[in-house]
Each structure stands twice: as C-alpha cells, then as structure tokens.
Amino acid sequence: MTRLAVLGTATALLAGCGTGTIRPDYASTSEYLQIGGRKPTNPEPIIENAGAFCLEVREEWHEDGRTPDGERLFARDTLRRAVACNEKSR
Hints:
This protein has 1 helix and 4 strands. The chain is of the alpha+beta class. The chain has a domain at 35-90. A 4-stranded antiparallel sheet has the order 1-4-3-2, with no helix packed on it. The radius of gyration is 26 Å and the shape is rod-shaped.
C-alpha cells in the first residue's frame, strides 16, 4: 500500500515537472507603465496657465522593478510646480 502511494506520488511529480513551462506574456495599455524594452525618454517640461499662476509640468520615467520572468518595469511620474507665467505658457 505504501509502495503504491510512493509510486503514485513519484509519477505525479515526474509528470508535473516533465510538462513545458508556459512563458507569461506581459502587456500593458497604460500610458503610465511600460513593460520591457528600454527606458522611455523624458519629454520637455511644459508650462500650463492656471489663471493667477502657471504650472510647470514634468514627466519622468524611472525603472520600477521587474516582472517574475525578468522583464524591466518602467513607471511614469508627473511632477507639477507653480512658476511665474511668461509668453510661452498655454
């Protein structure tokens, strides 16, 4: 009886390890996340007119870890700060 249980367990383990591993396919449609490839370039800051003041808006990409299979993750931060308005403001 124990011999049958050991044989059954060994067979199950060998069958499980013998099958091919499915490689995950990570994808993202988010404009704030990129999976794999190279780090995206940071665009030039823009100035937005907010009425009584203006905002400088900067977008910066940074590496934010890896997927379980080693693909690099990049995330985008949006940074804002109040600045003096000039003729370039929108």
